[in-house]
Amino acid sequence: MAxxxxxxxxxxxxxxxxVTQSLGGNAxxxxxxxxxxxxxxxxxxxxxxxxxxxxxTGITGIITPIRSDNKxxxxxxxxxxxxxxxxxxxxxxxxxxxxxxxxxxTECSPIQIGTQVGYYDYGxxxxxxxxxxxxxxxxxxSTTSEVTYQFYIKRLNGNGIRMGYxxxxxxxxxxxxxxxxxxx
Length: 184
Prior knowledge:
Radius of gyration: 19 Å
CATH topology: Jelly Rolls
CATH class: Mainly Beta
Helix content: under 10%
Number of domains: 1
Order of helices and strands: EEEEEEEEEEEE
Largest sheet: 5 strands, antiparallel
Strand content: over 45%
Number of helices: 0
CATH architecture: Sandwich
Shape: elongated
């Protein structure tokens, strides 16, 4: 006879750890669920950012929290390409934004999840660089509705920045986003 235990919440005997937000911390309990999305073999029609404004990449991950007081730990590893012809530097910004129930995309809370990536060529004749970067952050969406996380990119300098670009189809060009729901 097989047994199965299903519960909405498990709390440690001493309670769930808390960290004062002013100290830059954000603690929670155990992992409730994990969702993973990757881009291997997918093609993105408009993942390039030729302007100095953030644009959506189409690279997303979706999770539906069980409880509204739970947090979402996001671990992402996007494949990024920056390029510039005839000069020596190329850089851009990458961030993760969220949409709740198909609404408008907004910043993650309580802190923005993002970084900058850049390259410099001392020869000054142009450059093209590929890299996978790591983004890790905690979001507090305060909902039990579906949450979609999406990468946004912005060119800061150079000709452009791309995500999900597959040069040779190897594993190095694979981007992923993993979302873990953490008990409140």
